[in-house]
Amino acid sequence: MSKVVDVRGRESEILNLVIETYIKESKPISSIHLCEKYNLPYSSATIRNVMETLEKKGFLSHIHTSSGRVPTTKGFKQYVECLKKEEMVKNYPIELGFYSTLSDSSQIINKALDTLALKSGYASFLAVSGEGHKLFFRGARFILEQPEFENIERLKNVFYALEVKLNQIQELMLNYFDEQVKILVGDEIGFDEISDCSLVVSGSGEKKVSYSLALLGPMRMDYVRAVSCLQSIKFQLETIIEDTL
Length: 245
Prior knowledge:
The longest helix has 24 residues, at 2-25. By secondary structure, this protein is an alpha+beta fold. The chain has nine helices and seven strands; from the N terminus they run H-H-H-E-E-H-H-E-E-H-H-H-E-E-E-H. The chain has two domains: 2-82, Arc Repressor Mutant, subunit A (Orthogonal Bundle), CATH 1.10.10.10; 86-244, Beta-Lactamase. Helix content is 48%, strand content 16%. It has a five-stranded antiparallel sheet, with helices on both faces. The chain is elongated and about 60 Å long. It starts with a helix and ends with a helix.
């Protein structure tokens, strides 16, 4: 029984390392690269065998004839499920120091979303439900900086969604007023055009104005950074939204 646990633990460790390395480097990851980068206590042959098993289980895939592998949607979903909450609320505090210098609520919110997009590197959204519904959206330019969207068809699909389906995105976000952070990976978002992306979302629905804050990026997004940045801004927006809307 202990051997089975060790095997599963090793598979989980290697999968997490492949994904974390892929997030940073955006290229297929080989067993030799992992072995050298992390000084692992396994041979490259052992790591290669584990990666082959992970590929058979659908967590990794090959890119063309490369010896390296990349995570699949299933792999990213597994990785997200295993992320520890305490790891996702550290390292990226953001201070909205401009708040006291601005008076217009839309200007304040757009500035906050600009800051969130800049610090996280992903497009930012805020859906607000009070006397009516409003959607604020900033940072589309950061999508252009992601290597995934050098593929023109992928880029067209994303911008189609951002131009034509903003109302549906707003409706989606209005379902996430819960305080907990939710990470929607690929098809979980519910739009074919952005099925190569992930959406990190969290909200607040306890006061007179309910809202949901989100970040949209490639599936290869830095989830720890994204969640930390989003939480940092969200806590400050609670006061701003109550005071200005």
